[in-house]
Design brief:
about 80% helix, about 60 residues, two-stranded antiparallel ribbon, 2 helices, mainly alpha
Length: about 60
């Protein structure tokens, strides 16, 4: 694997981690875009968090091996 691919993988990993951090912050503060979360939005954020965490897990399997 050349250095360019490793850098792309690193940047992709950082983007996923940042998205996870954003979703967790919204869930912790119970606010999204300055509006209190309703049950449906909270459920959607939980699903997005699971999707992102799985994506990070798969990314690490592919690029950390």
């Amino acid at each position: 694997m050349n250095l360019g691919l490793k850098m792309d993988a690193y940047l992709h990993e950082q983007a996923i981690k940042e998205a996870i951090k954003d979703v967790k912050t919204q869930l912790e503060t119970e606010m999204a875009n300055g509006v209190a979360l309703d049950n449906e939005t909270e459920m959607l954020l939980q699903e997005e968090l699971e999707r992102l965490e799985y994506k990070l897990y798969r990314h690490n399997l592919l690029y950390k091996a």
